[in-house]
Description:
alpha/beta; globular; 5 strands
Amino acid sequence: xxxxxxxxxAQELTLIPGKLENILTHDEKCxxxxxxxxxxxxxxxxxxxxxxxxxxxxxxxxxxxxYIHAEGYPAxxxxxxxxxxxxxxxxxxxxxxxxxxxxxxxxxxxxxxxxLKEVKARSGVVIALATxxxxxxxxxxxxxxxxxxxxxxxxxxxxxVPLQLLAYHIAVRRGxxxxxxxxxxxxxxxx
Length: 191
């Protein structure tokens, strides 16, 4: 990185706490989605590139605290398996944020939008995680959770929070103990 790129990255990093606070104080949409999807038996999470691990983590959190079967999958590989499962009963969470200043991010976003449209063509219910101001995705997805814009390298810090909130609210609505999930005692306690 050049000195200028380093300064810009450091400045962007200082903005992350305020953006996280904004997400945490506006989680009504996650609560509303929890009401709608608390009885779902399965979820599919899709992400591409740097967003794929966030899809995995979103699925893991939902599984761990709500006991709903959830699977994270790379968006570019969805034709190899998950496509067969998509119907009106399978909520599909698509991580589709983008950094408008990054050409690679824009290409990944366009490909992810293509995946989203494939899910919709199969009567799937799409919950999209998008960057604030993205009106295109608002028209394509059934439900949209927004995060503030950020450089692509920092966006995962923001992206995971709404997915954790969604898992939390679903678990609470299902009557699950979110503070002591079953079968996780060994991984969360120190011996």
